[in-house]
């Protein structure tokens, strides 16, 4: 039988370990503690998710106070899927960080770096498993504040500017979420998600509830970097330390997507969002615009990390497009792409970090001919890039196929065509990197470089091979995504 106390430990362990990192001497001990914690959290997440009932959830009342009076942690098929994702990416990024972060962050800042990383992990997991919307806001801000710190720790001035921009927009988003939470509480007298879902229908026709959802949707969309609220993401991902960019790309926007989905289907209800208000079409429009803008903008980037950042904006659009279909097939595709894109983009950013580790640059002009000097790194980038394009037999193909079939099932032919066209655009911008690395001569004047350290290559290739594995064996990912979608759609009003 699953020990429900482990639900609290998912958050408590990294939260309490973070200040310990600051107290540990040297550079190695904080990394060792942080790595141990991330792997322990992954084991807990897997054990808990395996214990989720087929049609139900694991529920834990903090301090023994029953909801709605007390704070409730809840793990079901959907957030169990997200919790596994966050824990897995964290467990792979930390071993990679030993060499990568030491090369990009000043030694004196390393204990603070790992402390902030554990706070980020605790915040993301807390956001994922809490059943209380104010508690969700608190954890979301813990993760956001630690993200600002991590982005700023890169040893270059532009990182500070990017972190400041990220902070300003993130604070605006947090303010919107808090205002929406306050309005919802004013109309219902509760903050528990399940209790809110039961009380909101009686007041759903009021302008206050409509305004509450609008504020929450805008605030979460800023955290999600959904067009046109995406301006913080390209600079943050480009200037952050490579390990941070990989972790944020694989987790932060995915948790924000989870939050948006949870509010729509589990709190306010699909009928309210998609039938009684124009919010559904607003999400569809923003998703389609994000797919177009992100794909086109990525083509014109000369920095690999910035190219990947703009690509992330397009991929966020794919997930929200699936959500906006408000069908089991569409939501399954959105949740599936959430998981697959996390594997893809984390692998690509880790490969970019391997390049930066050796060259101190990821500009296209500096990586010409690099495939002959760093074949393992560039092979990893190429394979992960094929998954991003959506070529079989990769994970990216599976989620794009599900998204395409969901769009056709819904009768959204223009959206289906857009998915195909933007996949071709992804081939264009990935090809620019592949061409520079494999087909062009070695950059004139560049000193000979060797392959990245094994501690960086192993996590990178683990994610690359996961992309291939989940493209060949889809039972785990499609099964969990389908189960999550059915639970959300079936339980929504």
User: pLDDT below 50 for ≥5 consecutive residues: which ranges?
Assistant: none
The whole-angstrom Rg is: 21 Å
Number of strand elements: 2
Strand content: under 5%
Order of helices and strands: HHEEHHHHHHHHHHHHHHHHH
Arithmetic mean pLDDT: 90
Major beta sheet, strand line-up: 1-2
Question: Which bin fits the share of residues in helices?
Answer: over 70%
Task: Tell me the structural class.
Answer: mainly alpha
How does the overall form come out from the CA principal axes? globular
Tell me about the biggest sheet? 2 strands, antiparallel
Tally of individual helices: 19
N-end to C-end Cα span: 32 Å
Polypeptide structure, described:
- With 493 residues, the protein is mostly helical.
- The protein has a domain at 314-493.
- Helices cover 76% and strands 2% of the residues.
- The chain is built from 19 helices and 2 strands.
- It has helices at 5-23, 28-50, 77-104, 110-129, 133-152, 157-188, 193-199, 207-224, 232-239, 242-268, 270-276, 279-299, 304-324, 328-359, 375-389, 395-410, 413-439, 454-472, 475-491; strands at 58-61, 72-75.
- A two-stranded antiparallel ribbon has the order 1-2.
- Helix 6 (157-188) runs antiparallel to helix 8 and helix 6 (157-188) crosses helix 9 (232-239).
- The protein is globular.
- The mean pLDDT is 90.
């Amino acid at each position: 039988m699953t020990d429900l106390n482990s639900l609290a430990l998912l958050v408590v362990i990294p939260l309490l370990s973070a200040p310990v990192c600051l107290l540990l001497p040297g550079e190695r001990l904080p990394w060792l503690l942080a790595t141990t914690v991330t792997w322990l959290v992954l084991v807990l997440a897997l054990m808990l998710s395996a214990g989720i009932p087929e049609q139900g959830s694991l529920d834990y009342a903090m301090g023994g106070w029953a909801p709605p009076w007390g704070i409730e942690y809840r793990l079901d098929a959907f957030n169990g899927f997200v919790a596994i994702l966050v824990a897995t990416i964290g467990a792979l990024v930390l071993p990679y960080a030993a060499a990568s972060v030491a090369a990009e962050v000043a030694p004196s800042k390393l204990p603070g770096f790992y402390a902030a990383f554990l706070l980020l992990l605790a915040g993301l997991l807390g956001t994922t498993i809490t059943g209380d919307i104010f508690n969700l806001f608190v954890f979301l801000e813990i993760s956001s504040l630690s993200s600002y710190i991590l982005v700023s720790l890169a040893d270059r001035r532009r990182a500070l500017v990017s972190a400041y921009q990220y902070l300003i927009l993130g604070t605006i988003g947090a303010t919107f979420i808090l205002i929406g939470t306050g309005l919802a509480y004013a109309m219902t007298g509760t903050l528990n998600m399940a209790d809110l879902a039961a009380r909101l229908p009686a007041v759903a026709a009021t302008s206050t509830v409509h305004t509450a959802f609008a504020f929450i949707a805008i605030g979460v969309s800023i955290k999600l970097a959904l067009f046109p609220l995406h301006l913080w993401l390209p600079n943050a991902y480009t200037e952050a330390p490579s390990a941070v960019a990989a972790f944020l790309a694989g987790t932060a926007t995915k948790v924000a997507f989870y939050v948006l989905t949870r509010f729509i289907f589990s709190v306010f209800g699909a009928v309210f969002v998609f039938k009684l208000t124009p919010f559904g079409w607003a999400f569809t429009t923003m998703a389609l615009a994000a797919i177009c803008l992100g794909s086109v903008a990525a083509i014109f980037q000369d920095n690999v990390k910035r190219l990947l950042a703009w690509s992330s904006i397009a991929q966020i659009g794919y997930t929200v497009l699936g959500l906006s279909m408000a069908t089991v097939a569409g939501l399954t595709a959105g949740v599936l792409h959430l998981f697959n894109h996390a594997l893809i983009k984390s692998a690509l950013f880790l490969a970019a970090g391997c390049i930066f580790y050796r060259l101190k640059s990821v500009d296209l002009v500096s990586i010409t001919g690099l495939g002959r000097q760093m074949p393992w790194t560039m092979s990893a980038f190429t394979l992960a890039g094929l998954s991003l394009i959506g070529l079989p037999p990769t994970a990216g193909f599976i989620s794009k196929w599900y998204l395409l079939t969901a769009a056709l099932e819904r009768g959204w032919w223009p959206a289906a065509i857009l998915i195909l066209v933007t996949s071709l655009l992804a081939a264009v911008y990935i090809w620019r990197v592949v061409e520079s690395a494999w087909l062009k001569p070695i950059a004139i004047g560049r000193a000979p470089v060797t392959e990245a350290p094994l501690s960086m290559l192993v996590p990178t290739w683990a994610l690359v091979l996961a992309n291939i594995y989940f493209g060949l064996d889809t039972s785990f990912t499609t099964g969990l995504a389908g189960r999550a979608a059915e639970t959300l759609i079936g339980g929504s009003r």
